[in-house]
Amino acid sequence: MVDIIEIKDVVKSYKLYDKPLDRLKEAISPTHKMYHKEFIALNGISFNVEKGDALGILGKNGSGKSTLLKLITGVLSPSSGSIQVKGKISAILELGAGFNPEYSGKENVYLNGLMMGFTREEIDNKMNNIIEFADIGEFIEQPVKIYSSGMFARLAFAVSINVEPEILIVDEALAVGDVRFQTKCIDKMKELKSKGTTILFVSHATEQVKRFCNKAVWLKDGVVQASGESSEIADLYEDFMKYNTEHTVNTDISTKLDLPEISQSADFVKPSNPETVASITKVKLNKNSFRTFDELEVEVEYEVYDDLIDDLLLGVAIYTPDRKYIFGPNTHLEKIDIPNRLGRHRMKYIISSLPLLSGTFCIDVGLFNNEGIVCLHYKENVVDFNITNKYISEGLVYMKHRWEVLE
C-alpha cells in the first residue's frame, strides 16, 4: 500500500511564559536572558499511515493528540522533523473552528467549502446532501452563534464528510452527538473508508477505535508508546488506564521471554538458615504477550534442601494487577507427584488454551506441604503477561456458547 501520511522524527515545542511581559523582556534582553520554560508537546514521533487506513489515535488529555492533528492539517508547523501529506484533507478539530458566528449555517458551508478549495458551483452541487445530513431544519438559515454544541457537530460533520476528502480527520467530535447522529456519522465514515478514504479518528471510547479502525497509535507524554493493530493497541491502552501498566505488542508471538531469575546461583548450595527447607529459584514464561486461546507455559525451578519433604506440592495462580484471583490449581488437588528429594528440580505448568480476554495478568508461585496448609516459599507477582486481541468479545474470559433463534 502507498503511504499517504509520513511522519518522521517530529518534535513540537512551545515557549511558556509566566507573564505576557516576559515575552517582551526576552525579545529585548541585551544579555539574551531566558524568561520562558520549554514545553515539548511531541517528542520525536515517527509513523506512517497507508492509503485507506482507518487509524485510531489514543491517549490521555495532554498526550499530544490534538497537536499532532494540527500539524498534519498544517494549522501548526513542527519545531523539527518532517510531515508529508499526499491528499486533500477534511478535518473536524474543534467544534465551530472555521465557522463565522455571524454567518448562517448555509453561509458557513460556502465559507468552509471555499477554504477547502471548492468553487461555489461545486458547493451548490453538494449543498442538498450537506443540509440533509446535518438535519438541523430551519436553523440552517440562522446565525451559527445561536447553535448548540450538537448543532455545531452536525453541521461540521455534514460539511467534512460530504466533500469527498482523501483524508478525513475527526477529533472527538462524535462525543457531543446523540446516538442516532453517531450512528449516521459512523455509517458515512464506513462508506468513505470502503471507497479508499484515509481516516484519522481520535476518541476516548476505545470500543469505537476497536470496531471502526484497523490500526491505532497510542500517544503518551508526546511519544508513541505503541502502534499496530487497533484492537491490540486499544487493549494495551485500556490496561494502562486501569492498572498503569505499560506493555508493548510482541510482534513475533513465538519469541521466548527469559525473565529475571529469582536466584542466580550457578551451583546448588544449601542455605545456611536451617529453617529454609525449599525455595523457588527461577520462573519464566514461554512469552510475555499472548492472544486468547494461545498456550501459556510457566516453567518453575525450585530447590529442596532436606533429604525428603513429604507431601510437597507446587501451586501456580493467576491474578489481575489489583489482586483479583482468577485461577489457582496446585499439584496436590490434581494428584500430581512432584520431585521432593534433595536437589534442584523443574516443573512446567501448561494452559493449552488461554480463555482470558484482554488485560494484564500476574503469576504467583508457591511451594507448600501438608496439603497446602504449610507454606514453604511463596513468590507473589513473580512474572506478568498481557493479552491483546483482534476484537472477538468483551469481558474477562471467553466461554463456549451458542445462539439459537426461537422465533
TrEMBL record:
Keyword Transport in annotation: yes
Alphabetical UniProt keywords: ATP-binding, Nucleotide-binding, Translocase, Transport
SUPFAM superfamilies: P-loop containing nucleoside triphosphate hydrolases
Molecular functions (GO terms): ABC-type transporter activity; ATP binding; ATP hydrolysis activity
Gene Ontology terms: cellular component: membrane
Family note: Belongs to the ABC transporter superfamily.
UniProt name for this protein: Teichoic acid ABC transporter ATP-binding protein
Organism annotation: Paenibacillus antarcticus
